[in-house]
Automatic annotation (TrEMBL):
Lineage of the organism: Eukaryota, Metazoa, Chordata, Craniata, Vertebrata
Main location: nucleus
Protein name from the UniProt record: Integrator complex subunit 4
UniProt superkingdom: Eukaryota
Alphabetized UniProt keyword annotations: Nucleus
Gene Ontology terms: cellular component: integrator complex
Residues in the signal sequence: none
Compartment(s): Nucleus
Organism field: Chlamydotis macqueenii (Macqueen's bustard)
């Protein structure tokens, strides 16, 4: 939950300045350390922990290179203490790394997050479908049916690159649709309109069921404004950059209320 909140703070708001991004990334580092400690307590064997520890140390290194100019203002912080301990951490076994992280978390101070003067939260409202119709959308099983989606967006930066439509089916399957750039209009400053079609397809079931349609905000913290300045790894040859997903999407944040739509796939005629 802490990790999720840090992504919301960084990517759901416009007007966030670099000094806030530093503190948000610091909080994320603390959350990942906590996650590593909890995993170590609940996982048998050390094999899974080797990879987790290496990945965490890579992230500490990335933080150092990305925010090198901010480090003098972060004395006594979690990352400040970790960087002093780095030579020891790199050569330690996972169990020792976990102990060091636990002690460092307890001894370090939390950084205050000052709010910028102008801060706007990204929001989305689905106008169509309304979610109020009881008439199921009928189509032949295995074929597709088009569902019109009309939504308003407020304070979304780069909507063409970040806004996705998610469809959740009754059996738990989820489909993420990437609208075309031409599907977005810009009626005014800070406002966008999304008018697109989502193509649904599913096998038959016996009675009408509800699907859920919602909008997601996709993000990639490796491409954020904070990480744009990071050069290639220079600190240690043992810390090679991890491969990034080909899609360029690290995760998504739901930012509209889900709308329910009745659908009824009919069996195909033989």
């Amino acid at each position: 939950q802490i990790l999720e909140e840090t992504y919301k703070m960084e990517f759901m708001y416009s007007g966030v300045e670099s000094r806030q991004v530093v503190i948000i990334h610091h909080m994320r580092l603390q959350a990942k350390a906590l996650q590593l400690i909890v995993t170590a307590r609940t996982t048998r064997g050390v094999e899974p922990l080797f990879g987790m520890c290496e990945k965490f140390l890579q992230e500490v290194d990335s933080f150092q290179r990305c925010f090198i100019s901010e480090l003098p203002h972060m004395q006594g912080s979690f990352v400040d203490k970790l960087l002093d301990l780095m030579p020891r951490l790199v050569t330690s076994k996972p169990s020792e790394v976990v102990k060091i992280l636990q002690t460092t978390l307890r001894q370090s101070t939390f950084l205050h997050l000052p709010l910028p003067e102008q801060l706007h939260r990204a929001t989305a409202n689905i106008i169509e479908p309304t979610g109020e119709s009881d008439n199921p959308l009928r189509f032949t099983s295995g074929l597709v049916v088009a569902l019109d989606v009309d939504a308003t967006l407020e304070h979304v930066q780069d909507p063409q690159g970040t806004v996705k439509v998610q469809v959740l089916y009754p059996d738990g399957q989820a489909q993420i649709i990437h609208p075309k750039p031409a599907d977005f209009r810009n009626p005014g400053p800070g406002r966008h309109r999304l008018i697109t079609q989502v193509y649904l397809s599913h096998t038959a079931w016996t009675e009408p069921c509800q699907i859920e349609v919602r909008l997601l905000l996709a993000y990639n913290s490796n491409r954020s404004k904070a990480s744009a300045k990071i050069p290639k790894a220079t600190w240690s040859e043992s810390l090679e950059a991890l491969p990034q997903p080909e899609t360029g999407i690290e995760g998504t944040i739901p930012f509209s209320k889900p709308v329910k739509v009745y659908i009824m796939p009919k069996p195909a005629r033989r």
